[in-house]
């Protein structure tokens, strides 16, 4: 029997199809339960009152399937549905529920809007009061449909007739603005009325011209203006159209936001706020003066590739404590990224100060780790009754907040923390019998949430919050299991390509902030620059998107070619500044690159690994000559690595855990060297009582290096260690996110004195990928999880684990528990996928889609 219908189709990696920037969007659907596999599909495209059907297409493809018709034109709407055939049934399934897609402005010539902002003189280096811009307009007939295409130089929040449009925060996000400025399309039909209307926008400095970067930051990175670019397109009942675009007829006025900055926080004077300002009644000719218009090449305006940043959760304070001096200390019980929303009433001029911090020290906020990020919001009351307020153009990383100046008694329902990040679909879950490991996993999830704020950042709290390439390079496998981050990372990798230097150098962080002394001129570094080769490959493996691999391939190739030139005929990359095994716990607090592992050993190992992955990518893309060339390069580099860094008896130069871990995990040793090297790695780990001795490079690799080479038990010892340094030590110290340093907080409760002491850095959380694959037991063995290995490898006294992943094909899940006679496992294989299951000590078996219950007692023993 053929089950009812496939899922509605999805477009590219987007949450919905409105305003799509791809003229021929690829389509993905999942099969109805019980289909098994797909023998054929048929797509139906409805556009312009006509429908077009592909007819039956004999194909098993169901993810990122090519658009089945002529490309969309700007603003064109289409409806898509699909039906499928299984190999066992004659007839097709029912059609899927139709999904709508609507192109945004695909042609630069579609844009009439120009940037508009304040015309008054500003001190380009001083504090600047953000502007608001507005425009009154009349619509002569009933409106059938209206779209707002909008972006800004700086940040914006836009309203029509006093009602906010959309719920996106920190729009338009951060891209390499001169090349790519993201805009978004909103359906605003319901915001408009026949007759008088008003559109108005709040503006903020954001990344465009705010102060950003280390040591006081750089101002005006992209420009000195703060402007809105908006185009409202109205279609009337009778089919005629009108456009209201930002132009010289708009007006500007300073708003009630007195100052605003991503690091600094925001000051809002509600005495200056007229709630009707963005309605036709809000026109006060004296206050509003003509805007200054600017320029922007419309060819640089791009549609989003992923979901926006928005508030995804509200958290009430766990405790509110009045401190002796009339301040309130709030503990939200969770280190998070977002901002406070307060509801407050008090006399005019009352000033509330909201400060934020991740940890406490001596009973008060520990703000030293924030460095120069002041993270303070200030609200001045108007005295006109209760007000609900939260800042607009800033975010803070905090668990604790301190409020000064609250009028009267603060009760816990008057303040809420609003969690903000890119609103990615959650796709991965893990749980096991060890509560500390569960909290570790939860901390990884929270650090991903806090640091995926439009782009993947290192940390969310101090004067940094940059797209560090090395951090995401090691974390991408974990990230792509936990959330659907394909669109976000594809967009960011596009910026990495834009920022790549002509010689192939990948900057340390993207977007680049010019002039940072330590990182200028930009020079290449291993593990960080390798994001160019490894992260597109990870995304291809996890999301099955070959086009993405193709798009970023020139960047990857230019990177490997550069390293090949740098290494020269020796094939050893042993020059230049390298960060090595960054934050090895043995490195001094003020020199995190000075770890135990030779930096050039790390650099050459990554060279081999990137060359290998470039070869794999080339093969995948049908570039056979390249595949061969880079595979031989990888072999040669591995051989050079062995000559230079492998001593007799498979000892590695420096004898550090990271050296062994990288050599094993990157496949750089001969088969004969593997076992003794792994034994030595195990010995090193145990000699230190199974505490961690690795940094950013070794930590993501060490458990695999051990487990795949006969030392699963030692990997578990490391995982379950609670003494510092270890993954669980922070958990025992009450951590609710992953720390930057193994000892960001020391056992005596004092903070690490290093200048970099973040409590929210995802890199060391990359071990979660091992939890998912090895403890839980789900691994993709073909791109997009089309083939899956279910291979739980219990140890460390863990008696059960449950892992689940929403693959592009649907749910994959494994829940195992140890019993008196072995193991039982509940396995779910997504429709359309194949699986091998290998339970401990048992021969692997092949399973098809659906739910299966397996018991080791019933299975054949492994040969
Ligand atoms: C960041 C890191 C980054 C490192 C490299 C730090 O300040 O927070 O996570 O990768 O610098 O130097």
Automatic annotation (TrEMBL):
One of its GO terms (biological process) is carbohydrate metabolic process. Its EC number is 3.2.1.40. Residues 425-775 form the Alpha-L-rhamnosidase six-hairpin glycosidase domain. Residues 143-313 form the Bacterial alpha-L-rhamnosidase N-terminal domain. It holds the Pfam family Bac_rhamnosid_C. InterPro entries: 6-hairpin_glycosidase_sf, 6hp_glycosidase-like_sf, Alpha_rhamnosid, Bac_rhamnosid6H, Bac_rhamnosid_C, Bac_rhamnosid_N, Ig-like_fold, Rhamnosid_concanavalin. GO terms for molecular function: alpha-L-rhamnosidase activity. The keyword Nucleus does not apply. It catalyses: Hydrolysis of terminal non-reducing alpha-L-rhamnose residues in alpha-L-rhamnosides. Keywords: Hydrolase. Residues 277-296 are annotated as: Disordered. It is an enzyme of class 3 (hydrolase). SUPFAM superfamilies: Six-hairpin glycosidases. This is alpha-L-rhamnosidase. Residues 777-843 form the Alpha-L-rhamnosidase C-terminal domain.
């Amino acid at each position: 029997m053929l089950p009812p219908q496939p899922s509605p189709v999805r477009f590219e990696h987007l949450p919905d199809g409105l305003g799509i920037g791809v003229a021929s969007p690829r389509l993905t659907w999942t099969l109805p339960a019980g289909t098994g596999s797909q023998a054929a599909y048929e797509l139906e495209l409805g556009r312009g009152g006509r429908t077009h059907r592909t007819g039956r297409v004999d194909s098993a493809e169901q993810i990122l399937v090519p658009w089945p018709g002529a490309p969309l034109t700007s603003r064109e709407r289409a409806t898509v549905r699909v039906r499928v055939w299984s190999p066992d049934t004659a007839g097709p399934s029912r059609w899927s529920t139709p999904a709508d897609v609507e192109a945004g402005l695909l042609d630069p010539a579609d844009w009439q809007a120009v940037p508009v902002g304040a015309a008054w003189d500003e001190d380009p280096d001083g504090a600047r009061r953000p502007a608001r811009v507005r425009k009154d307009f009349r619509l002569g007939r009933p409106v059938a449909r209206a779209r707002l295409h909008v972006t800004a130089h700086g940040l914006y929040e836009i309203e029509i007739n006093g009602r906010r449009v959309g719920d996106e925060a920190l729009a338009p996000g951060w891209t390499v603005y001169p090349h790519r400025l993201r805009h978004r399309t909103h359906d605003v039909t319901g915001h408009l009325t026949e007759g008088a209307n008003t559109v108005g926008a709040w503006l903020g400095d954001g990344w465009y011209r705010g102060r950003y970067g280390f040591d006081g930051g750089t101002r005006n990175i992209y420009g000195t203006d703060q402007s809105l670019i908006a185009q409202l397109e109205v279609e009337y009942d009778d089919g005629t159209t009108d456009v209201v675009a930002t132009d010289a007829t708009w007006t500007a006025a300073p708003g009630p936001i007195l100052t605003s900055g991503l690091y600094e926080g925001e000051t809002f004077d509600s005495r200056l706020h007229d709630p009707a300002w963005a309605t036709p009644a809000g026109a006060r000719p004296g206050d509003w003066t003509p805007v200054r218009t600017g320029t922007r090449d419309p060819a640089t305006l791009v549609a989003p590739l992923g979901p926006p940043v928005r508030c995804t959760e509200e958290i009430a304070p766990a405790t509110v404590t009045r401190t002796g001096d009339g301040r309130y200390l709030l503990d939200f019980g969770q280190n998070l990224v977002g901002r406070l929303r307060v509801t407050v009433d008090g006399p005019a001029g009352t000033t509330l100060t909201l400060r934020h911090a991740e940890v406490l020290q001596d009973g008060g906020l520990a703000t030293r780790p924030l460095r120069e990020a002041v993270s303070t919001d200030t609200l001045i009351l108007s005295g006109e009754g209760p007000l609900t307020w939260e800042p607009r153009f800033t975010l803070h990383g905090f668990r604790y907040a301190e409020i000064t100046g609250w009028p009267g008694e603060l009760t816990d329902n008057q303040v809420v923390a609003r969690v903000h990040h890119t609103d990615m679909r959650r796709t991965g879950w893990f749980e096991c019998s060890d509560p500390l490991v569960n909290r570790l996993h939860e901390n990884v999830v929270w650090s991903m949430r806090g640091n995926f704020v439009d782009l993947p950042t290192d940390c969310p709290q101090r004067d940094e919050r940059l797209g560090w390439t090395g951090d995401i390079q090691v974390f991408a496998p974990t990230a792509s299991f936990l959330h659907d981050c394909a669109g976000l990372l594809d967009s960011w990798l596009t910026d990495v390509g834009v920022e790549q230097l002509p010689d192939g150098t990948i900057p340390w962080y993207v977007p680049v902030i010019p002039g940072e002394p330590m990182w200028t001129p930009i020079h290449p570094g291993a593990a960080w620059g390798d994001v160019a080769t490894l992260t597109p490959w990870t995304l291809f493996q996890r999301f099955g998107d070959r086009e993405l691999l193709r798009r970023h391939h020139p960047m990857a190739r230019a990177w490997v070619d550069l390293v090949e030139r740098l290494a020269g005929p020796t094939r050893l990359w042993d020059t230049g500044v390298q960060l090595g095994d960054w934050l090895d716990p043995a490195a001094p607090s003020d020199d995190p690159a000075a770890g135990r592992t030779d930096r050039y050993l790390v650099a050459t190992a990554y060279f081999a690994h990137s060359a290998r992955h470039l070869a794999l990518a080339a093969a995948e893309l049908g570039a056979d000559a390249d595949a061969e060339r880079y595979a031989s390069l990888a072999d040669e580099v591995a051989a050079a690595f062995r000559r230079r860094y492998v001593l007799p008896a498979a000892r590695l130069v420096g004898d550090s855990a990271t050296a062994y871990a990288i050599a094993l995990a990157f496949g750089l040793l001969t088969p004969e060297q593997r076992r003794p090297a792994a034994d030595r790695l195990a010995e090193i780990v145990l000699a230190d009582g199974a505490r961690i001795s690795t940094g950013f490079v070794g930590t993501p690799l060490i458990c695999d290096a051990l487990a795949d080479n006969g030392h699963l038990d030692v990997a578990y010892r490391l995982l379950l260690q609670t003494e510092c340094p270890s993954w669980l030590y922070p958990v025992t110290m009450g951590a609710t996110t992953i720390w930057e340093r193994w000892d960001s907080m020391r056992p005596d409760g004092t903070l690490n004195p290093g200048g970099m002491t973040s409590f929210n850095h995802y890199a060391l959380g990359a071990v979660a990928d091992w939890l998912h694959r090895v403890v839980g037991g789900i691994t993709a063995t073909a791109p997009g999880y089309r083939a899956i290995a279910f291979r739980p490898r219990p140890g460390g006294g863990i008696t059960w684990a449950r892992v689940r992943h929403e693959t592009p094909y649907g749910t994959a899940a494994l829940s195992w528990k140890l019993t008196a006679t072995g193991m039982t496992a509940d396995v779910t294989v997504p429709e359309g996928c194949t699986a091998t299951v290998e339970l401990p000590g048992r021969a692997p078996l092949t399973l098809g889609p659906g739910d299966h219950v397996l018991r080791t007692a019933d299975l054949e023993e492994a040969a």
